[in-house]
Automatic annotation (TrEMBL):
UniProt key word Kinase: yes
Entry-linked PROSITE patterns: ASX_HYDROXYL, EGF_1, EGF_2, EGF_3, EGF_CA, LAM_G_DOMAIN, VWFC_1, VWFC_2
UniProt domain Laminin G: residue ranges: 57-227
Designated name of the protein: Protein kinase C-binding protein NELL1 isoform X4
Signal peptide (from-to): 1-21
Gene Ontology MF terms: kinase activity
Length: 722
């Protein structure tokens, strides 16, 4: 469908939505405070006055508590979230200054499916969620732990995240699509992450989850929308994709022949073939009598195909059958007995055994051999007169299968079936020929590879300059590596970190020569590895003073940073040096906020996320790709800082926390789909970016359009079941 048609339909939906207005379906919301029955909860929470008197507000105290949903409420929540792509969490909160805590958490064991956390230690709001089984965190810098009332609304629409604070749009981001199909056993916690961690300190009022587009409007009715949400538009795109799927099926037969075509390379020299002691020139052909095949020498390789048999137009009183000594089937008179049709050589057991010969049922007088099994294990094979024992090997005496097919035993007969990677010739599975997966585009070779056809299978070879990642994909290779933390993004091409350059990031950017240094007055710039230094040997301006925040600090002056009371800075010879305040744990007036390691109180210790290890105040550790710290009995965790990558596609490998650059979009997990970038499927139909379809002729292969690249994967469980 043309893009202008999509935009017209989208505008029509916009207009219709704007006219309809907004209603609140009670079945599409959950009042968390009411569902948790906080009025009758005494341990850890107390009802207090809120921002307004229209609803109840509760103070969450700094004590051990367990505020979570009952099983029937959790089940209701699981059903509300099922298959939903749009939801909003609303709350009115007043958080104790400089504290950290979780406002709402929906989790199953260690997996967070929705968690809103406010950190007063780092002045940021964190949204924790799960994407394809992996934890994700969005850190949104904002100071909400300031002792004031705030209205917070976090809205998710497919991959679109929106944060409103006090009815102001603070952040709008594109994220990985969160999982909303919550597993059994998921539970809702209010004011904490679990029994021991993330205790919120302050007041919560009007806690709700709204399952409708732009639910923040229920909190801020003056904010109205004029266009559909991301999820609305994706639903429209999905409808277009469904139409494309229908179009693909209608054109499948027209394009089927094209998938079988292949193009041979032009040869500039003649190559011969040697078979059974005979030498054949290029393009020579001969008949392989043993296997009923026509063979040709092509560029030094022998290609054989089953002899092409002419179509048989047998008369109504005959059937095509195989005859010994002949490659193609021939027409032979058929026999009819009691409405059953028999071909030449087939038998039927009536009062006696009879065989079809020349259109006549001839009586067979030969006796059946004795069987060494009980009567209940006797089985009569198809079109035979003598019974055999159950489990009889029909292949030992059954059809003659060609070299690319194999015999398969059934209960009452044996049949020939083509091996994997082969297809029957004219519908006869006794004779099969190789499928050229490369020419037919039935392979899974991804970017930076070349498909090579092999008998019964194929291989994905890496193009020069790339090394293998798995059987289907390759990644760039830098022979000398990328030094100082650089990333290989193309063959022998590195993206270097700040301060380094060169093909392998091996070169001291010279900030002094480039005049990108910050040396003051008459001080001299000295280039260093990965940086620079300033020296002031002499001169009238060599006072050693330091510029700082629009002012001047004298040489030798010491001061405390306004934004960090735990850091002490000093000016020395024109340069500013900052360090953490030295901690003297023997001093009774030591600042425990800056020196948590001096805090020996039992109440200041923290349990880790698994509840097994005890940490002292000030200890740091890593958990689930997050940096965690214990401070006065409170655990605060934030995402690990990863280096910024300038490449187009990135992926997080198994067991790692930070993304790496990848050149193949099929390996990337950070793609933002652009519906203007389309793909051609195996039917020749244009697919929008983000669309998914099943590969023609391979029901276990799923393909997806990723911004112009077709990425296919095989469902191993489907292969096993089929």
């Amino acid at each position: 469908m043309p893009m202008d048609v999509i935009l017209v339909v989208w505008f029509s939906v916009c207009t219709a939505r704007a006219v309809m207005g907004f209603g609140m379906d009670p079945d599409l919301q959950m009042d968390i405070i009411t569902e948790l029955d906080l009025v009758n909860t005494t341990l850890g929470v107390t009802q207090v006055s809120g921002l307004h008197n229209a609803s109840k507000a509760f103070l969450f105290q700094d004590v051990e508590r367990e505020i979570h949903a009952a099983p029937h409420v959790s089940e209701k929540l699981i059903q509300l979230f099922r298959n939903k792509s749009e939801f909003t969490f609303l709350a009115t909160v007043q958080q104790k200054p400089s504290t950290s805590g979780v406002i709402l958490s929906i989790r199953e064991l260690e997996n967070s499916y929705f968690e809103l956390e406010s950190s007063g230690l780092r002045d940021e709001i964190r949204y924790h969620y799960t994407h394809k089984g992996k934890p994700r965190t969005e850190a949104l810098p904002y100071r909400m732990a300031d002792g004031r009332w705030h209205k917070v609304a976090l809205s998710v629409s497919a991959s679109h995240l929106l944060l409103h604070i006090d009815c102001n749009r603070i952040y709008e981001r594109v994220i990985d699509t969160p999982e909303t199909n919550l597993p059994p056993g998921s539970n809702l916690w209010l004011g904490q992450r679990n029994q021991k961690h993330g205790l919120f300190k302050g007041i919560i009022q009007d806690g709700k989850i709204i399952f409708m587009p732009n639910g923040y409007i229920t909190q801020c009715p003056n904010l109205n929308r004029t266009c559909p949400t991301c999820s609305d538009f994706l639903s429209l795109v999905q409808g277009i994709m469904d139409l494309q799927e229908l179009l693909a099926k209608m054109t499948a037969k027209l394009n089927y022949a094209e998938t079988r075509l292949s193009q041979l390379e032009n040869c500039h020299c003649e190559k011969t073939c040697q078979v059974s002691g005979l030498l054949y020139r290029d393009q020579d052909s001969w008949v392989d009598g043993d296997h009923c095949r026509n063979c040709t020498c092509k560029s030094g390789a022998v290609e054989c195909r089953r002899m092409s048999c002419p179509p048989l137009n047998c008369s109504p009183d005959s059937l095509p059958v195989h005859v010994a000594g002949q490659c193609c089937k021939v027409c032979r008179p058929k026999c009819i007995y009691g409405g059953k049709v028999l071909a030449e050589g087939q038998r039927i057991l009536t009062k006696s055994c009879r065989e079809c010969r020349g259109g006549v049922l001839v009586k067979i007088t030969e006796a059946c051999p004795p069987l060494n099994c009980s009567d209940k294990d006797h089985i009569l094979p198809e079109n035979q007169c003598c019974s055999v024992c159950r489990g009889h090997n029909f292949c030992a005496e059954g059809p003659k299968c060609g070299e690319n097919s194999e015999c398969k035993n059934w209960n009452t007969k044996a049949t020939c079936e083509c091996k994997n990677g082969y297809i029957s010739v004219q519908g006869d599975s006794a004779y099969c020929e190789d499928i050229d997966e490369c020419a037919a585009k039935m392979h899974y070779c991804r970017a930076n590879t070349v498909c090579v056809n092999l008998p019964g299978l194929y291989r994905c070879d890496c193009v020069p300059g790339y090394i293998r990642v798995d059987d289907f994909s390759c990644t760039a290779f830098c022979e000398e590596g990328c030094r100082y933390g650089g990333t290989c993004v193309a063959p022998n091409k590195c993206v270097c970190p700040s301060g380094f350059t060169g093909s392998h990031c091996e070169k001291d950017i010279d900030e002094c020569a480039l005049r990108t240094h910050t040396c003051w007055n008459d001080s001299a710039c000295i280039n260093l590895a990965g940086g620079f230094d300033c020296l002031c040997p002499s001169g009238p301006s060599c006072s050693g003073d330091c510029p700082h925040e629009g002012g001047l600090k004298r040489n030798g002056q010491v001061w405390t940073l306004k934004e960090d009371r735990c850091s002490v800075c000093s000016c020395k010879d024109g340069k500013i040096f900052c360090r953490r305040t030295a901690c003297d744990c023997q001093n009774p007036s030591v600042d425990l906020f800056c020196c948590p390691e001096c805090d020996t109180r039992v109440t200041s210790q923290c349990l880790d996320q698994n509840g097994h290890k005890l940490y002292r105040s000030g200890d740091n550790w890593t958990h689930s790709c997050q940096q965690c710290r214990c401070l006065e009995g409170e655990v605060d965790c934030w995402p690990l800082t990863c280096p910024r990558l300038s490449c187009e596609y990135t992926a997080i490998l198994e067991g790692e926390c930070c993304p790496r650059c990848v050149s193949d979009p099929c390996l990337a997990d950070n793609i933002v789909y652009d519906i203007r970038e389309t793909c051609l499927d195996s039917y020749g139909v244009s697919r929008l970016s983000g669309s998914v379809w099943t590969l023609a002729g391979s029901p276990c292969t799923t393909c997806k359009c990723k911004n112009g690249s077709v990425c296919c994967s095989v469902d191993l469980e489907c292969l096993h079941n089929n």
